[in-house]
Amino acid sequence: MYSHGYAVWFLAEAHAVVKGDKQKAVKDALTRGVKIIVDAQNSQGGWRYRPDPKDADLSVTACQIHALFAAMKAGVEVPEETLDNAIRYVRSCHDGKEGFFRYQPQGSKSNTPLALTGGAVSALAVAKAGEDEPWKRGVAFLKAAQPANSGRDTSHHPNYYYGQF
């Protein structure tokens, strides 16, 4: 679902720059891609690595939210219920005491709270669902967080990029 989400996001961005028959083909593919995302959402409102709606995690869910909102900007309809449930899932991963976001609602603090919190607050922002308490606490967590300096280059790891969102 990561690859799919990024592909849908790419198609949404491409839709704005291609014209004519190519734009129609891109929109058709984008519409089919959105349907897969919508159909793969689980009962909690999130997504996981495969398009099987059994469970979910925050990192894949943040990716799907970005893809869906980019698709909407390109003119593809997305069910409001899908969006509302996705935002609810992101908020359910928030740790109200510490301010970070967890990998899953029932989980403990992960070893990548900077990345997960970055993904969560960026998804809430693109969904125009920010400015609430979880979002504000997440932003404060990011501002206060100092990435661990392991002496290794971690810029090739996806967690690095989520943290930079």
Count of distinct structural domains: 1
What count of helical segments does DSSP give? 7
Strand fraction: under 5%
Number of strands: 0
Mean pLDDT: 90
Overview features:
165 residues, mainly alpha, Glycosyltransferase, 7 helices
Describe the structure.
The chain has 165 residues and is mainly alpha-helical. The protein is built from seven helices and no strands. The chain has helices at 2-15, 20-40, 58-73, 80-92, 113-126, 133-144, 158-164. The mean pLDDT is 90.
Quickly describe the structure.
This protein has helices spanning 2-15, 20-40, 58-73, 80-92, 113-126, 133-144, 158-164. The protein has 165 residues and is an all-alpha fold. Helix 1 (2-15) packs parallel to helix 3.
Question: How would you summarize the topology of this molecule?
Answer:
Blueprint (H helix, E strand, L loop, with lengths): L1 H14 L4 H21 L17 H16 L6 H13 L20 H14 L6 H12 L13 H7 L1
